[in-house]
Amino acid sequence: MKKVRFLTVLLLFVTLSATAQNMSTVIKAEALKMARALAAMDLETYISYTYPTLVSDNVSKQKMKQGLDSVEKFKKQFGIKIKSILVGNPSKVVTYKKIMQCTLPQTMTIEAMMGVVETENTLIGLSHDGKKWYFVDALLYKQKESKEKLPELSPDLVIPPMKKATTKPAETKN
User: Fold this and answer.
1) How far apart are CA 35 and CA 58, in angstroms?
2) What is the fold, at CATH topology level, of the domain defined by 2-169?
């Protein structure tokens, strides 16, 4: 009888562990798709990973498009290339007010004429069903206009402080 109880508990533990690992895999895969869309300047795909209330009205969509157009213009003008976007593993998922939430570290390396810039920031993952995930840069939660359009974050969600960007000067050719 003890063996049956032990095996039942073990099976339950393994099932829960596999579910949590699967959720992390889904979150990271979705974040990587969004990162690839950003690197390719694929506006439609990128917007599909933006929390719906941030792009629900035409004014917000237009602002986002203008921002991405400006980025594209600067990329061409200053020879800027997104060298890489790395997404780390998600934090533990917490459910707060019916919304699943987590954080993910993101490192972006940008190459320009003046050198290489590396930024580290935090993405906040938000989902209603655990299958479709939306991502918001943690800095948006500090902007009043954006914060009003986003769901309230769980007090258990830990958002690390933003790290300062690092810059390496371009190598000169002799």
Assistant:
1) 23
2) Nuclear Transport Factor 2; Chain: A, (3.10.450)
Whether 62 and 54 have beta carbons less than 8 Å apart is answered as no
The token pair that represents 39 in the structure block: 């690197």
pLDDT tens, N- to C-terminus, the chain (174 residues) = 565 454 444 344 444 444 445 889 999 999 999 999 888 878 888 888 988 888 777 776 677 777 777 777 777 777 788 888 999 999 999 999 999 999 999 999 988 888 888 999 999 999 999 999 999 988 887 777 777 778 888 999 888 888 888 888 877 655
The helix (H) or strand (E) run that includes residue 57 is none
* Six-digit token string for 122: 């935090």
- Cα distance between residue 91 and residue 103, in whole Å: 5
Domain range annotation of the chain: 2-169
